Recover the amino acids of this structure.
């Protein structure tokens, strides 16, 4: 979590600089192309990443697992890259509105960055499967750490979007070098891939859902860019980018819970899965809700403070996406349960419903017309509304799956959290009529009020205890975190210096 926090700070700094120097139109172009590439990038996984996590966590020979995963990942990444190049060629030759030469160069540089990032996942997925998250997070941290100085250089020298794409590539290469160094310490004996059938047995049922999930994640910014100016993509994407740093909590929880639940499911420890799920959901809510409440109450002010006056419209979608982010965090433990307990079939159904609903909502809400039929034409606001509706439906499906798998009912603590956050939000709203949010330190003051008030109310409701306080203090203990990281980075059985 230490490296996650540092990565978030560096990443937010880079995001702030990029939006202020590039403006909405150029930044929107970059994020639109990244969304297109991410959609194509579903080809580069097809469920084999989850299969690798599953097999390693079950105790299969590490050398056989890594050799198999590296072979498959390399082939799939090559297929993705060739498919992108082929598609761009067809688009350039056949479209009435082909990409310009500069746009093609930008897309190709970002494609190389995507390829490097995909190959880096051979190492990071292995570390996560072994629940050695400090290693994977160190790799994760190196990307923004290397990218930021390059980003500052290209922005100060007015190198525009193409310069920013090379900064992305530099960060990706830096992370890949660290990943290669760490995986070389695992004493892996590289061999012919022997577990392809075993991996395919898990991955093939997941292929459709992985493709659907990839499309679902990128559908909104892609559709906005097709029907509206790229600046609208920027307003939506900056909201997602800001909230994605909070989503790091969910990603960290998923990396820990999935292999753990997989192991416990294999051992028949259902009660432990239920207990850990409820606690994980509760802690994710405790950490995220004060931050999200502050964003919901002061969306436009925070957007201007973070990204500049040109991104005032970002505040029009931040509240919707903040709600969707919170619901998504609550669903993390359910996703880990479903996958960890070998119920990929339920995950497939869940994803299909989500994709179908989101697609229908986006078609109705985002464009002004489709095939001559008039629609609502809400652009980025429509995409945000669709996200919230889909999140609530997904939440209901997730609760049903949890009940059918383990008999677990929704955690009643969450209702207390929402009530406490709502009360504090109302207090902050009226307080802002006296002390408005203008500068960053004003927002920081209200964030501290949200955190203090939220936890105080929960303490009175006996929902926040001394045990919880010790848990958070331990999580923030730099000395303990440092010892944990050092212990993972050195070989087992050796004392770190």
């Amino acid at each position: 979590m230490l490296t996650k926090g540092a990565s978030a700070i560096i990443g937010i700094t880079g995001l702030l600089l990029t939006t202020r120097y590039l403006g909405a139109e150029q930044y929107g172009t970059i994020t639109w192309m990244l969304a297109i590439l991410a959609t194509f990038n579903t080809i580069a996984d097809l469920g084999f990443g989850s299969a690798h996590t599953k097999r390693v966590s079950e105790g299969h020979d590490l050398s056989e697992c890594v050799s198999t995963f590296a072979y498959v990942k390399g082939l799939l990444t090559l297929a993705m890259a060739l498919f992108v190049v082929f598609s761009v060629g067809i688009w350039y030759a056949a479209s009435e509105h082909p990409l310009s030469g500069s746009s093609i160069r930008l897309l190709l540089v970002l494609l190389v960055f995507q390829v490097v990032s995909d190959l880096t996942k051979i190492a990071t997925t292995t570390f996560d499967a072994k629940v050695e998250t400090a290693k994977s997070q160190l790799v994760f941290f190196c990307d923004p750490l290397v990218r930021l100085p390059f980003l500052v250089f290209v922005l100060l020298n007015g190198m525009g979007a193409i310069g920013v794409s090379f900064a992305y590539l530099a960060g990706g290469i830096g992370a890949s070098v660290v990943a290669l160094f760490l995986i070389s310490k695992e004493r892996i004996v590289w061999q012919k891939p022997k577990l392809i059938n075993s991996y395919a047995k898990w991955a093939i049922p997941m292929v459709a859902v992985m493709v659907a999930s990839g499309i679902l994640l990128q559908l909104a910014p892609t559709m906005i860019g097709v029907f509206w100016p790229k600046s609208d993509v920027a307003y939506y994407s900056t909201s997602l980018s800001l909230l994605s740093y909070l989503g790091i909590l969910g990603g960290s929880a998923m990396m820990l819970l999935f292999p753990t639940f997989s192991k416990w499911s294999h051992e028949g420890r259902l009660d432990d899965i239920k207990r850990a799920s409820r606690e994980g959901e509760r802690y994710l809510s405790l950490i995220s809700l004060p931050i999200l409440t502050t964003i919901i109450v002061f969306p436009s002010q925070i957007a201007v403070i973070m990204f500049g006056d040109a991104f005032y419209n970002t505040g029009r979608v931040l509240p919707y996406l903040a709600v969707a982010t919170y619901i998504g965090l609550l669903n993390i433990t359910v996703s880990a349960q479903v996958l960890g307990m070998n119920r990929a079939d339920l995950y497939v159904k869940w994803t299909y419903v989500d994709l179908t609903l989101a697609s229908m909502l986006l078609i109705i809400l985002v464009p002004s017309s489709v095939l001559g039929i008039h629609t609502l034409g809400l652009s980025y606001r429509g995409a945000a509304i669709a996200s919230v509706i889909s999140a609530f439906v997904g939440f209901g499906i997730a609760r049903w799956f949890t009940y059918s798998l383990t008999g677990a009912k929704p955690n009643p603590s969450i209702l207390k959290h929402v009530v406490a956050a709502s009360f504090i939000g109302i207090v902050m709203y009226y307080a802002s009529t006296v002390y408005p949010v203008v500068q960053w330190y004003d927002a920081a003051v209200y964030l501290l009020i949200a955190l203090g008030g939220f936890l105080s109310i929960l303490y009175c409701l006996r929902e926040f205890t001394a045990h919880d306080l010790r848990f958070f203090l331990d999580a923030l203990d730099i000395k303990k975190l440092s010892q944990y990281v050092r212990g993972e980075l050195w070989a087992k059985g050796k004392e770190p210096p």
Notes: The chain has two domains: 1-207, 228-464.
